[in-house]
Amino acid sequence: MPRGSLTAHVNMCPLEPVDCVFSWAGCNDKPLRKDVHVHTADTKHMTLLAIACGELKQEVDALKEENTQLKKEQVQLKDHLHSVLADDSYPLLPVDVTEGGEAVHFYMTGCGRHMSARIMTHGNEWDGYSVILFAFHEGQFDKSSPKLPKIFGKLTYKAV
To answer: Where along the sequence do coiled-coil regions lie (predicted)?
Structure first.
């Protein structure tokens, strides 16, 4: 065998033992490279896969349960934190903003961003228009980088 092809032969030698492709599922056999296809077709691998899938399903179910519990605890801790630290003079959403009134300050969620809203009217009742202004303010929970949820408004207009 020429020296130049020795490395290629070592990497592809048909008589070299190799790990089974199902070693992750518990197969500890090391078939020869030339016999890998015959070994892989063995039905014992289906049993190993069934056992491994069962174990993985149990692990996934346990992780889902743990995740659900952690989410519940997170909500409880956020609510508790807000009740301890938040300025109770600012309500949570939803809030009522009236035309011509002062800006209404509020927190978007229990540990959310501090905001204010105000409605300003330009012109008269017949040819004027109204503008809703929202503003972000420095709040107690800014360091925790609360998410910015979508804000939906409901306009209640009563004609005279």
So the answer is: 46-80
Structure-token match 């190799």, residue found? 18
Q: How far apart are CA 129 and CA 121, in angstroms?
A: 6
14 Cβ neighbours under 8 A, 6+ residues apart: 32, 33, 34
**Residue 67: band (very low, low, confident or very high) from pLDDT cuts 50, 70, 90:** very high
Phi, psi of 92 (to 5 degrees): -90, 165
Q: Write out the H or E segment, with its range, that includes residue 32.
A: none
- Beta-bridge partner residues of 99: 119
Domain boundaries, the chain: 3-42, 88-160
DSSP-assigned beta bridge partners for residue 118: 133
pLDDT at 11: 81
Task: Count other C-beta atoms under 10 Å from residue 132's C-beta.
Answer: 13
Instruction: For residues 105 and 93, give the distance between their C-alpha atoms in angstroms, rounded to a whole number.
Output: 10
Q: Which of 64-68, 87-91, 94-98 has the lowest mean pLDDT?
A: 87-91
